[in-house]
Amino acid sequence: MKIGLITFFILASFIVGVYFYNDWYHKDIHSKPEVYVNVNYRGVTDPVLFIDNLNYKEEYLNFYNKLLSGKKATFNFPVKSFPANHQVYLIGYTPDSLLAEIACYYDFGKDGDWFTTGFVIPSAVHPIE
Predict the structure, then answer these.
(1) CA atoms within a 13 Å half-sphere pointing along the CA-CB vector of 29
(2) Are the CB atoms for 102 and 37 separated by under 8 Å?
(3) How far apart are CA 76 and CA 47, in angstroms?
(4) What is the pLDDT at residue 92?
(5) How do the domains of the chain map onto residue ranges?
(6) For strand 34-37 and strand 39-40, is the pairing parallel, antiparallel, or unpaired?
(7) Which of 20, 23, 29 minimizes the C-alpha distance to 105?
(8) What is the pLDDT of residue 110?
(9) Strand partners, 88
(10) What pTM value is reported for the model?
(11) Do 102 and 34 meet the contact criterion of CB atoms below 8 Å apart?
């Protein structure tokens, strides 16, 4: 009986704690500046690719450095993109300022999430006017 009551108390505390942490986390995201993220490298505004794992940072930066300088570029990282012309939140920058961290609330489809975070090149971040 006592073990069941202790287990119930621990599980209930964990669930309540997760609920309040989740609420705080999303309120913190919504307090960040809203921006647009897109790139314009052929005279057309395109969605920006992003990475959600900094292990791909070098490949990602090499891809965009080549692409934005007019060279052919191939990517060696998982392809993911934020929707063009959709407001996202600027969380901050990596310590070396080479990438901006973005949070996005968007319905990514049947197998997607409604919330995702990732890193983009800073030149893709545009303030809402």
Answers:
(1) 17
(2) yes
(3) 18
(4) 92
(5) 1-31, 33-127
(6) unpaired
(7) 29
(8) 59
(9) 35
(10) 0.78
(11) no
Tokens 């794992």, residue located: 53
pLDDT tens by residue, 6-18: 787 788 788 888 7
pLDDT digits (tens, 9 = 90+) for 49-72: 899 999 999 999 999 998 888 888
Residue matched to tokens 């052919």: 72
Asked whether the beta carbons of 80 and 51 are under 8 A apart, the reply is: yes
Q: How far apart are CA 30 and CA 104, in angstroms?
A: 10
Question: Tokens 């790139």 identify what position?
Answer: 39
CA–CA gap between residue 33 and residue 86 (Å, rounded): 13
Tokens found for residue 101: 């961290």
Rounded distance between C-alpha atoms, residue 31 and residue 97, angstroms:
21
Angle at 85 between CA 83 and CA 29, to 5 degrees: 75
Which tokens is 14 given?
Answer: 């964990």
Tokens representing 128 are 């809402």
Q: What is the DSSP letter of 71?
A: -
Give the position of tokens 């990514």.
108
